[in-house]
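Protein 1 of 2
SEQ + STRUCT:
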Amino acid sequence: MHQKIARFRDMRPPKTDTNLYSYHLNQLLKAGFVKKTDAGYTLGTKGLVYVDRLSSEKTLVRQQPKIITLLVIQNSDGGVLLQRRAKQPFIDTWTAPSGKLHMDDPTVLAAAQREAYDKLGVTQRELRHAGDCYLRVMDSDDTITLTLVHVFAFERDDIPMTDDLVWAKPHKLHRYDLAPAVEQIITRTFFRDPFFFEEFQVDWNHSTP
């Protein structure tokens, strides 16, 4: 974690049997966490990914913010599309269609286009990156989720309603059991600034099993 190259003998923990140490080092080599070079041993691709998540002070994997794209979609009647969440956290609440960025998404825009297709079957190329939001959801003093939200907006009329997809009038959003900050994000997107950034902190008082 704190050096580029390490030699075999330098990495061996004190009082550790050589055969046992060699066995575990070989397992790390095979798994791609460590690789051997002419100069010594260094981190492989998986090792670099793993160490990037570690706290330098505690050498423990840190809980890190997630990054999502969220789609604010309007139809010609002014309705905004809501989708029911099918899993925790905040299961059965309503949100705008969204999903996490993947490591193989080449761009944030590509991630939003993929989510439009995966969630809605929509091939939508004209997405507007409306803004970004930093959203922290709290339960008293505990952080439940911390999310960077890339908000994309577009118009569409051909998405049919189902039990889990509804077109809602913006002034009636309060009638729905919404996921945290959904109404605030949708409202902010409707300002239609060239680009916006907002930070939201929400106290989540719903009782979830």
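Protein 2 of 2
SEQ + STRUCT:
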Amino acid sequence: MSSDAVLKNLGEHIIGKIGDDIIDYKVAYNELTLNARGDKIVRILGFLRDDTSCSFVQLMDVCGVDYPERAERFDVVYHLLSLKHNHRIRVKIKTDEETTVPSVVDVYPSANWYERETWDMYGIMFDGHPDLRRLLSDYGFQGHPLRKDFPLTGYVEVRYSEEEKRVIYEPVKLAQEFRTFDFMSPWEGAKYIIPEDENIDEGNKG
């Protein structure tokens, strides 16, 4: 039996057991993905861990995905591994900026820092998390850097001030060359002379 067929059988098994909690499933790239109801995520992951046909005992990752054009702009994605069956599964739920997602720390203790990172980067709230605070950014940081509407330059920059003898925060100041950058490169046919190329002999230009 092919690996895709095995995963399809597993998907059907899961639907047969907790189908009311699952919206749909698909098999692609040798992986099984479940689209699930967010309010049932604790029950779903508990089943996937404990059912002997699943045995997804290891939580590999929890992460966010931002689709700002959607009303429910965020996906929360859980990646699980079954060491017993050598299977991987992806579970996806949707939420918005206001709706909290149940924490799964009681099912997988390793979700603690994964959920903290997802909160820090996307602002997705996890209800019942024991210590939901920033993990990668500074405690006073404003905003969530992996949201699509967060500016690439950020809002503030950090530097050490010799005058004040401490780290200080300042608004981002863009140098003029970044404001007028034309996104061209020499290989794309730029007509101007590239800096430091002024003295290259015309006969040696490739």
